[in-house]
Amino acid sequence: MATLEVSIQNHVGKIQLNRPEAFNAFDLDLCQNFHRSLRELAESPEVRALVILGGDRAFSSGGDLRWMKQHLDQLGSSVFELAGCFHESILTLRTMEKPVIAAVKGVAAGAGFSLALACDFRVLGENAKFVHAYSSAGLCFDGGGSFHLARIVGLARSLEIAAFDQPIGASQALRWGVATKVTTDEQVNEEAIEMAETLAKRSLHSWGWSKRLLSSAFSNNLETQLKLEQEGIAACAAHEDGREGICAFLEKRKPNYLYK
Question: What is the CB neighbour count within 10 angstroms for residue 99?
């Protein structure tokens, strides 16, 4: 059985994690397949937005601890390889000019939590839970979890989450800004896909620059950020999307960015 399923419809690419017997835990095989599929969708001109889906009981339970146990004699190097492969996907998610939505039902733990945090938006079912999980297994963040969580909820709350490892329910995740939207468990996938279809009609070039600027805002000083914004807005204005957006606004009509 394939460890994931990939499809494209209405300019939305979908990656469905498919290791239900392991609660969609990432072993090296799933990591490699996930990154390969992610790159293909990121590069496809047909795809303008992505949705990452898990199962009904788990979005992903994180790194596959059973896989790790099989490599006890060389555990450090094996986990180093696994994390490196997983991190290639995280970098792809954060640098692609296409919006990415995580559709989370059930638990998203460890690397599954980090994967959801690396997406641009997160739609949660009412019974979904985020779990840090690393500290309970004697491990620490990977998958950019420390980077993204601290930026979303702040340092103090991130330390609390890491230390006490208490599950974060959907309503709490929404209050903390970790969830973009909470809906019924039955509607999660539909809501995420609908959100992706809406975003797919917007300017990818504009979104790409916004994503790049916001990602760099925490590391640049104001002068550097202003220069990057100047470069970005000029590039957007010179792009066909910019011309279409400006003309549509002045002509009091909806812009059409699906001309490509």
Answer: 24
